[in-house]
């Protein structure tokens, strides 16, 4: 008596992700992006200025 097995195949998208994984990745990216927009929108202006100023210095970009 012999048995055979069939392996299931799934079609991968352009990024090499399955459909469920792609949806999860998009949801996580959207959540993080909206979180950044929300935090920046309610942060004091001086805090945003200082953060941008410090970032420019870390990138060796002259700002003054």
Topology:
Elements lengths: L18 H24 L2 H14 L6
Molecular structure report:
- The structure is a single chain.
- This protein has a domain of 40 residues.
- By secondary structure, it is an all-alpha fold.
- It is elongated.
- The mean pLDDT is 80.
- The protein is 59% helix and 0% strand.
Question: How many strands in all?
Answer: 0
Average residue-wise pLDDT: 80
With helices defined by DSSP (H or I, 4 residues minimum), what is the helix count? Answer: 2
Structural class by helix and strand composition: mainly alpha
Give keywords.
64 residues, mainly alpha, 2 helices, elongated
Short précis:
This protein is 59% helix and 0% strand. Keywords: Membrane, Transmembrane, Transmembrane helix.
